Amino acid sequence: MNRMSGSDRTFMAVVYAVLIVATLVVALPFLYVVIVSFATKAEVLSRGFFLVPKTWSLDSYQYLFRERNFLLSFRNSLWITLIGTFVNIALTSMMAYGLSKSWVVGRKTMNMLVLFTMLFNGGIIPTYLVVNQFGLLDSYWSIWLTAAIAPFNLIVMRGFFQSFPSELEEASRIDGCGELYLFRKIVLPLSMPAIATFTLFYLVQNWNTYFNALLYLNDSAKWPLQVFLRQMLIEAADSSMTLEIEGFEFGPPVKMATVVVTAVPLLVIYPFFQKHFNQGMLLGSVKG
User: Fold this and answer.
1) Residue 92: what pLDDT?
2) ABC transmembrane type-1 domain: from which residue to which, for each copy (predicted)?
3) How confident is the model over 127-153, as pLDDT tens digits?
4) For the whole model, what pTM was predicted?
């Protein structure tokens, strides 16, 4: 059994110390948000920073899940995330698969255009004018289509498809498989690490949709959860934190409860993707 030298033990101690500090820096603010969401407004305003409330209360969550606008925005976020992620994965995987084939006409030009969009874009105003010209304002398609394909994700997935065993594809074509059937029945099932990885990326992107929703959606009934949280913060600031709705005094605990509820879906989803995500992080590192 090998024993660690003194310098190795010192190095490991420094590594663990750095990791502990980094964990506290990341976890402590979120822990504080969770704790405050279970406290009362009076205690938050009187005590300031604390990690254990004197009085535990579920009033903030009860108020939140009775609030019609919150439930509506939560439903909107779910709709935007589910449909948007499906559009993202479908378009990204199909385009990446096409660009991974050397026999595709115009492949080099398309690859250059994809790289170009990573460096330059049309800007906010031209994009808004295009969305308006196509009649997509106040439609969720304005969010889904303007962020349909992330160039970086496309390039990485293209590299994954390029490392795919060509012998398997050739054998499938000999058996009479068309390109669409080959893609759906053979390539995609064998690409689950890549699909799961980018599904998680797109889930986070769509769930956290804020700027595009604020820019393209004028109807407040269609706003996602992030925009609702922004409106809640603005209203609380304008009312100097004395807003009272249906007998409930609105305050910091409600805002913190909204943040917690907003973060929970992603925290719940991640464990189901973790296995594939860990494999997908090595995409392109080893050529099969």
Assistant:
1) 93
2) 74-273
3) 999 999 999 999 999 999 998 999 988
4) 0.80
Phi, psi of 165 (to 5 degrees): -60, 120
Name residue 181's amino acid. Y
CA distance 60 to 37: 7
Nearest to 149, CA basis, from 216, 83, 96, 208: 96
Cβ partners under 8 Å of residue 270, min gap 6: 200, 277
Binned at pLDDT 50, 70 and 90, residue 72 comes out as very high
Domains of the chain, CATH where assigned:
58-280 (1.10.3720.10)
CB-based burial, 257-280: b 16+ in 10 Å, e otherwise: bbbbbbeebeeebeeebeebbeeb
Tokens found for residue 266: 């992603």
What's the angle, vertex CA 167, arms to CA 88 and CA 199, rounded to 5? 15
- B/e letters for 153-180, b = 16+ CB within 10 Å, e = fewer, are bbbbbbbbbbebeeeebeebeeeebeee
Contact present, 206 and 81 (Cβ < 8 Å): yes
